[in-house]
Amino acid sequence: MNVLMVASECAPFVKTGGLADVVGALPAALKPLGVDARVMLPCYPALFPLLPQGKEVANFGDLPGGSGRLVQVKAPEDMGGITLLLLDAPQLFDRAGKPYNGPDGQDWPDNHRRFASLAQAAARICFDGLDGWKPDILHAHDWQAALAPVYLKQTGRETPKTVVTIHNIAFQGRYGPHTVAELGLRSDWFHSGGLEFWGDLSFLKAGLVHADHVTTVSPTYAREILTPQFGMGLEGVLQARTDTLTGILNGIDTDVWNPATDTALPVPYDARTLKRKALSRAALCERLNLDPAHEGPLFCVISRLTEQKGLDALAEAIPHLVQQGGQLAVLGTGEPALEEDFRRAAQENPGRVGTHIGYDEGFSHLMQGGADAILIPSRFEPCGLTQLYGLHYGTLPVVARTGGLADTVIDANAAAIAAKCATGFVFDVVTAEGIAAVLDRVFAAYDTPTQWQAMMKAAMRQPVGWQDSGAAYVSLYESLLG
């Protein structure tokens, strides 16, 4: 079975969040199951070094954003070994900054043309194939790729089956109605039952309406987005598609994220050598100027610093965390006000709070290895990956009961503790008071070393890889092909 995955980012090449990790890991998980999955990406500057190693397999003269060529290249084995299809269109993608915005933080004004070009190129190769390879399934990820099923359907020709995966429904790709003609979309499809959303063109809605199947990244999130609270205005569209909506839990790449082999840690460890985790804690304390002799639990945050992630409430709860005897290590970037809150917390609590504003992939591994618990108080979270990394590293997740967080963390209630299956702490109210209450539970468990170690071992036993989820995707693909 051949699957064309279309996305705007893919780890380890280009990453702004969990989407990249999923797109980077899923093809390798599908390969042993008989699926040849190739990933189509915009050719950003970070990917330029791969171009000389590849082969031009298609050329497009009239994409919405102009001309472009498609270069197929096999990534090095130490970078996943997956087959990439790079849309080389310098006028669209050869830019400083991040994939979606420039150095000033503002979205590129032509993002609609940039990602419509990606989607249209994907649709075209579904018909024409590439060197004898032709996709049976087109799998589009998030709004940036969601027009691909629309371009396919517009042709009226028999097409591959299509899947759109929602990684975060809050990001929808909305642009003015004038872009419908500019992007070569059918004007008679611009209505409330099609491409139109509150007067605008919505890339994501268009894909949800026209794809053969819709998936999202956890079973709980699949239920949540059917409601006004979480559906971000698209709940009606999804309610009409409940028979073709599936929640498949994300996994993680357990080769990349493995404490037993992780070179970012001073000394690797596993469930039988948990004492070695203390060496990672010492290295983390040194990196963030935290007191290495402090005996309370060390919490970490690895996140975009936004209100969606509940980090405004956490910032308010820092005095309670410190007063009760905890330490906090923060790695992330985001809303300027929250960045300043965490900088100030570090200044006011020397040795107890350490903050690194920015992102560093290697440092995130050390954070997982060195902390005792990871805080994820999100107000909504489609799946989340940091709690899965935490489980695998024996760094107990403290999470809000939403989306994939609720699906992956077993709360340390009395029954779960007695059964030795508790893997973290789950709470319901994302406020400073709600976080303080769950922190008190964490401190009580930490003060009982045998209970804490049992939870660490249960967390590290929990399956977090792609084996089950990869099989679920294959089953879905097969059902679509009949």
Automatic annotation (TrEMBL):
InterPro entries, alphabetized: Glyco_trans_1, GS/SS, Starch_synth_cat_dom
Keywords assigned by UniProt, alphabetized: Glycogen biosynthesis, Glycosyltransferase, Transferase
Top-level division of the source organism's lineage: Bacteria
GO process annotations (BP): glycogen biosynthetic process
GO molecular function: alpha-1,4-glucan glucosyltransferase (ADP-glucose donor) activity; alpha-1,4-glucan glucosyltransferase (UDP-glucose donor) activity
Binding site for ADP-alpha-D-glucose: 15
EC primary class: transferase
EC nos: 2.4.1.21
NCBIfam families linked: glgA, PRK00654.1-2
General function of this protein: Synthesizes alpha-1,4-glucan chains using ADP-glucose.
Sequence similarity: Belongs to the glycosyltransferase 1 family. Bacterial/plant glycogen synthase subfamily.
Protein name as catalogued: Glycogen synthase
Species of origin: Sagittula salina
